[in-house]
UniProtKB/TrEMBL annotation:
Residues 24-278 form the EAL domain. Signal peptide: none annotated. It comes from Shewanella denitrificans (strain OS217 / ATCC BAA-1090 / DSM 15013). The chain holds residues 366 to 648 of 648 of the full protein. This is cyclic-guanylate-specific phosphodiesterase.
Amino acid sequence: AKFDGNKADFNFFDQAMADKERHKLQLTKALRNAIINNELVLHFQPQIDLETGQIIGAEALIRWMSPQYGFVPPTVFIPLAEQAGVITDITQWVIEHSVKACQQWHQLGFNKLCVAVNLSAEDFKRGNLVTYTMSILHQANLPAHFLELELTESMLMDDINNIQKQINELRAFGISFSIDDFGTGYSNLGYLTKFNVSTIKIDRSFVANICQSSNELQIVKAIIEMSKSLSITNVAEGIEDSETALMLSKLGCEVGQGYLWSQPLTQQDLIVLLSAKHKELSY
Ligand code: C2E
Ligand code: MG
Ligand code: MG
Ligand code: MG
């Protein structure tokens, strides 16, 4: 009887796994056509200078509205896109549309704003990242220093020489690099100077708790101090309340991003916000 029971359980999980795999395959198939079918949209989340309260840029965050599956969050489809080899096309699409959006902000008079784009490790493997990024900037006539590319710690672990070569080329062109989700990855800090990153983005998991937990507070404090001594800009992600923003500002944090000020917005809504806020955003 015991054996049969185990067998039944095994079949149950086997079936659940198979269903999950099938769903992943279907999603991946739909994703392959998402670009051509115009199902991808970019939203932009403002980044705020904690000293002046001014919006200094925005991070591009991709959204997929699938006619079949509804809204699929990027945490679900980006890993699928990476596995299926479609991420490089998606990244190229994101860079192209981010650069266009940034150029539009500039044309409207918000001509100091930067745009940040998330990269994937796969983007360095195909070998065309440098060429298309430079050509997109050139065509949009946007100076390269308005584009920032976000990396994660784990991306910098494999294929170091190949990645470093491409980063150096892009940096020589004027593009800057930041480390996203800082503190959650592999903590070999040597890469901060090795890759000459200009910004670190302190992960939301630390930021969210600084007013509740002295451990997180100490970690964030140490990250801010370290970034300052290395002349690296620090950005705090996921600020949801003014108490946290005030604390971060006291600790010397320079830039904030989070629901306190704004969720990621459509290009249209961001322009409305920019136009309304000739005054500063406070906290
Ligand atoms: P990320 O790059 O760390 O982006 C920040 C995420 O935190 C975004 O989630 C943003 O909406 C969310 N967020 C911002 N402020 C707050 C806050 O105050 N509270 C909370 N709870 N969340 C906040 P989103 O848009 O769902 O993106 C999730 C992740 O998906 C991103 O994390 C990034 O790793 C990836 N991703 C998004 N767009 C792209 C893209 O175009 N390319 C690539 N390769 N990855 C992307
Ligand atoms: Mg990011
Ligand atoms: Mg990211
Ligand atoms: Mg992040």
